């Protein structure tokens, strides 16, 4: 029996998987708990229901990697001044914690192989750590609950616990998970790496430790800099354990191999994949990744410009880089650029015509995670590509960044981490001495808090992280932990338009789109052949969706940023407010600093 077969049973036992639930609800399993939690097999069934709490990410919404998002977002509302305790959502996911603590409260009655019992306790504590660190990232201080709360429990109305206390508890949970989760799988596991292992626990531990270490280092307002080193050291040791003993590797030797990690349905055997979300038409498990292409968002010029040239030099050091047209900007670039942003000539199926980009979104459409095989695209929530949750490239980047922040990084470390990643797509190696001798000024302006003798290599590791992990959900958290939130306050932009008129965006030399002032002024395309004008897709600045930064030329920029300018309030916006109704229910809850 595969884990998918357990979902209905697990949902019934959890009592929270299919509807809203809150911390104070009395357990819905009061009848079944007396006959459940008796054996490790019971624990396996129960913990199968927890896996839905950790899913793959396949976009970078709410970050500076996005040019525009027509669907709206909480972060967009935040940086435009529209978010308040009266309008914010959240604070309603405590049912996930309750389902975890319910197992931990009842596991004392389980009998059988103690190592197996400890394994499932480790799985539960892994998910509790993941739950709580997400809460810490959002709110800072939060109340820590290690048991299910009854309706009349006074602790329901406790004050928040300090960040330091909660994070120490998170780390304790992860250390237990690392020590007790086994690297064996249920006999019916298919595929095996859809189940948690010690390597997955070490990956989350390394991720949390890096986040907390850098957050404490750069957020000096917390006065926690003295403890940052401890977390960075644990990020190093956890990631190093995976590197030394996990048997993982960067897979492939081409851009196509990089693409396959995100757009195929057979990554379970890939040596880079530590933990994955398996999707299968036969099992009726799917995702919605086809919407990454031209649905509600596109990617930003800020992201596009950070990809290096093919010879390893910064694209932003190329004369006139910011005036390259859509078809020019892909020339001689890091191959990962065309695997992230839709290049000229891209088709959704071999026999199809080239897909025409949409300038009203900025022009840089996302193709990373788009299911390339039409057989894997079945419509809304009917895509059957596998999705990585933890992959080895992240572990390597954690290792390099933590060592660089500690000042212990060597060229050998760079070769074993960043350069292994670059080598897959044929990019030149990063030289630590050269990077530190002449730090990239463009990146330095983005991250002014980076200083010291390792400034250059830290900046390059940040570039590599942004490029390699683009659209995998890391960018927003990275900006917050580096205290680079002001980048969210900058207006986004898209492709460069030299002048009003028609443009080729498919690479065949024929104009596909036209950028015009209005429907009444089509003079800029008057000289085009009639057959071209008949097919060309016209976009009018007067429609008010976008405009050009230099009026009749320049980068595509968006009207919303003119009407509702962005502004990142530091340090207030590094946290989200708690909904006002929650502070009314619990008078001991206080808002994060600044709210």
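Q: What amino acid sequence fits the structure above?
A:
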């Amino acid at each position: 029996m595969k884990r998918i077969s357990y979902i209905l049973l697990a949902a019934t036992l959890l009592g929270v998987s299919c509807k809203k639930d809150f911390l104070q609800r009395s357990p819905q399993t009061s009848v079944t708990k007396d006959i459940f939690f008796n054996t490790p097999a019971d624990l396996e069934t129960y913990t199968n229901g927890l896996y839905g709490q950790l899913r793959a990410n396949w976009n970078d919404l709410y970050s500076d990697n996005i040019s525009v998002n027509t669907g709206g977002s909480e972060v967009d509302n935040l940086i435009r001044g529209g978010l308040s305790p009266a309008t914010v959502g959240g604070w309603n996911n405590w049912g996930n914690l309750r389902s975890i603590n319910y197992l931990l409260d009842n596991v004392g009655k389980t009998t059988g192989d103690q190592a197996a019992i400890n394994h499932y306790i480790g799985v539960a504590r892994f998910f509790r750590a993941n739950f709580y660190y997400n809460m810490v990232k959002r709110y800072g201080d939060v109340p820590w609950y290690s048991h299910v709360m009854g309706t009349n429990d006074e602790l329901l109305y406790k004050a928040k616990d300090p960040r330091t206390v909660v994070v120490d508890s998170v780390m304790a949970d992860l250390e237990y998970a690392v020590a007790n989760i086994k690297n064996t799988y249920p006999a019916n596991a298919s595929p095996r790496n859809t189940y948690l292992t010690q390597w997955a626990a070490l990956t989350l531990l390394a991720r949390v430790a890096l986040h907390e270490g850098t957050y404490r280092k750069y957020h000096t307002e917390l006065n926690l800099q003295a403890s940052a080193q401890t977390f960075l050291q644990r990020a190093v040791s956890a990631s190093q354990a995976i590197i030394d003993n996990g048997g993982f590797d960067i897979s492939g030797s081409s851009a196509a191999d990089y693409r396959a990690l995100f757009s195929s349905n057979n990554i379970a055997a890939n040596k880079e994949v530590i933990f994955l979300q398996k999707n299968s038409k036969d099992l009726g498990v799917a995702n919605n990744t086809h919407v990454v292409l031209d649905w509600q968002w596109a990617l930003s010029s800020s992201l596009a410009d950070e990809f290096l040239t093919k010879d390893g030099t910064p694209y932003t050091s190329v004369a006139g880089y910011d005036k390259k047209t859509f078809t020019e900007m892909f020339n001689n670039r890091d191959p990962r650029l065309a695997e992230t942003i839709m290049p000229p000539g891209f088709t959704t199926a071999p026999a199809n015509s080239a897909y025409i980009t949409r300038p009203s979104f900025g022009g840089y459409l996302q193709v990373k995670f788009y299911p390339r095989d039409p057989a894997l695209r079945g419509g809304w929530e009917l895509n059957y590509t596998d999705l990585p949750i933890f992959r080895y490239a992240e572990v390597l980047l954690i290792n390099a960044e933590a060592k660089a922040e500690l000042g212990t990084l060597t060229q050998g470390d760079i070769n074993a981490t960043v350069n292994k990643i670059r080598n897959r797509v044929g990019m030149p190696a990063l030289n630590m001495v050269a990077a530190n001798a002449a730090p990239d000024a463009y990146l330095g302006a983005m991250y002014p808090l980076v200083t010291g003798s390792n400034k250059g290599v830290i900046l390059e590791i940040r570039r590599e992280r942004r490029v390699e992990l683009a659209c995998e959900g890391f960018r927003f958290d990275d900006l917050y932990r580096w205290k680079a939130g002001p980048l969210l306050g900058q207006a986004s932009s898209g492709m460069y338009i030299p002048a009003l008129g028609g443009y080729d965006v498919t690479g065949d030399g024929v104009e596909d789109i036209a950028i015009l002032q209005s429907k009444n002024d089509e003079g800029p395309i008057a000289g085009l052949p009639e057959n071209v004008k008949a097919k060309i897709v016209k976009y009018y600045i007067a429609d008010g969706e976008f405009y050009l930064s230099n009026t009749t030329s320049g980068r595509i920029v968006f009207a919303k940023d003119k009407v509702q300018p962005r502004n990142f309030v530091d340090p207030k916006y590094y946290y989200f407010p708690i909904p006002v109704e929650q502070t009314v229910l619990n008078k001991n809850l206080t808002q994060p600093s600044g709210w």
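Q: And what stands out in the fold?
A: The chain has 20 helices and ten strands.
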